Amino acid sequence: MKLEQLQKQLGYQFENIDNLKQALTHRSAGAKNNERLEFLGDSILNFAIGYALYNKFPQSQEGELSRMRATLVREKTLAIIARKFNLGEYLKLGSGELKSGGARRDSILSDCVEAIIAAIFLDSEKNMDKVVERVWDWYSALLDEISPGDAQKDPKTRLQEYLQGRKLSLPSYEVFDIKGQAHNQTFKVLCKIQNLDQEFIGTGTSRRKAEQNAADQVIEMLKLKK
């Protein structure tokens, strides 16, 4: 696996290349995978983006900052960053996941970005400044574009306000499947809206993320119907 090009794109040269290899290894490929790195990277990412927004918007209140951060760290945004680095080409997947198109799946790509963040943190001897610098560099265009306002409300809030404004029934969310061990579960949620003859299935690493994913799908569908 040639990782020199990827390291150039990331802007970080690994002292121990095994750290990067582990970050690129999905749980379907073997025991030494990126699950634990993803867990750590998620926390580091939230700090790095939260700190950037805190500095950029000194007048914004906690609610606005939280909504902007949620937009920047959500699965869809992380998958965009992953594709910028062509991470799908470097992922190590099990044969079944590979055949089912796992290298293109947003959930796998976004988890990989978080794992790489943690891998850089550990490889740099826990140098938080270096990791934050990398995250800010990857997010530079997105941080320039983002601003407080309604567009940054999370999908569930936006969907609820849309439906309320049109006096339509509010959605119901029901967890119907949970897979994985306690520290790394995948939730599936069924979203139903009485006035729509369609059901939406959201997935995520928590119930909340799965519900947001389902709500996001409804919003996209409603946009298409306009």
Automatic annotation (TrEMBL):
Gene encoding the protein: rnc
One term under GO cellular component: cytoplasm
Main location, first listed in the record: cytoplasm
Phylogenetic classification of the source organism: Bacteria, Pseudomonadati, Pseudomonadota, Gammaproteobacteria, Pasteurellales
A GO molecular-function annotation: identical protein binding
Ranges where the RNase III domain occurs: 3-125
PANTHER family in the record: RIBONUCLEASE 3 (PTHR11207:SF0), RIBONUCLEASE III (PTHR11207)
Location of the DRBM domain: 154-224
Binding site for Mg(2+): E38, D111, E114
One GO process term, biological-process aspect: tRNA processing
Organism: Pasteurella atlantica
Catalytic activity: Endonucleolytic cleavage to 5'-phosphomonoester
Keywords of this entry: Cytoplasm, Endonuclease, Hydrolase, Magnesium, Metal-binding, mRNA processing, Nuclease, RNA-binding, rRNA processing, rRNA-binding, tRNA processing
Subcellular location: Cytoplasm
Protein family membership: Belongs to the ribonuclease III family.
EC number(s) stated in the UniProt entry for this protein: 3.1.26.3
Protein name as catalogued: Ribonuclease 3
InterPro entries: dsRBD_dom, RNase_III, RNase_III_dom, RNase_III_sf
Alphabetical list of PROSITE patterns matching this protein: DS_RBD (PS50137), RNASE_3_1 (PS00517), RNASE_3_2 (PS50142)
Cofactor(s), names only, from the UniProt record: Mg(2+)
Active site (catalytic residues): D42, E114
Function comment: Digests double-stranded RNA. Involved in the processing of primary rRNA transcript to yield the immediate precursors to the large and small rRNAs (23S and 16S). Processes some mRNAs, and tRNAs when they are encoded in the rRNA operon. Processes pre-crRNA and tracrRNA of type II CRISPR loci if present in the organism.
